[in-house]
Design brief:
Elements lengths: L7 H11 L4 H11 L2 H18 L4 H8 L3 H13 L3 H10 L1
Helix pairs in contact: 3-4, 3-5
């Protein structure tokens, strides 16, 4: 786990996110918190991770998501060498 991100401010943000109760609340909060481009970038990375997990090629992913190969590579590195956060979420989403 990256200790650089473990700050009181990040804890406060995560506690705020954890109190959201539904998708509409998420839309409201994240629309206030993020710019449109920031939110689209986050959702693009999540889509890239999902497609990589489904063994799609970089070309397929780039064509569908518009992500650059650098972004796809960065997400792939997180999937392979990260803290398993993506995997945790994907597993819970299957339930």
């Amino acid at each position: 786990m990256n200790k650089k991100i473990r700050t009181d401010a990040v804890d406060h943000l995560f506690n705020a996110i954890l109190c959201l109760q539904n998708k509409e609340e998420c839309y409201s909060f994240f629309e206030d918190l993020c710019t449109v481009n920031e939110l689209l970038s986050l959702s693009q990375r999540f889509e890239v991770a999902s497609m990589l997990r489904d063994r799609k090629t970089y070309l397929e992913i780039a064509e569908k998501t518009g992500a650059s190969t650098a972004t796809i590579s960065r997400v792939n590195r997180s999937l392979n060498y990260g803290d398993d956060g993506y995997e945790l979420v994907f597993e819970r989403m299957q339930d």
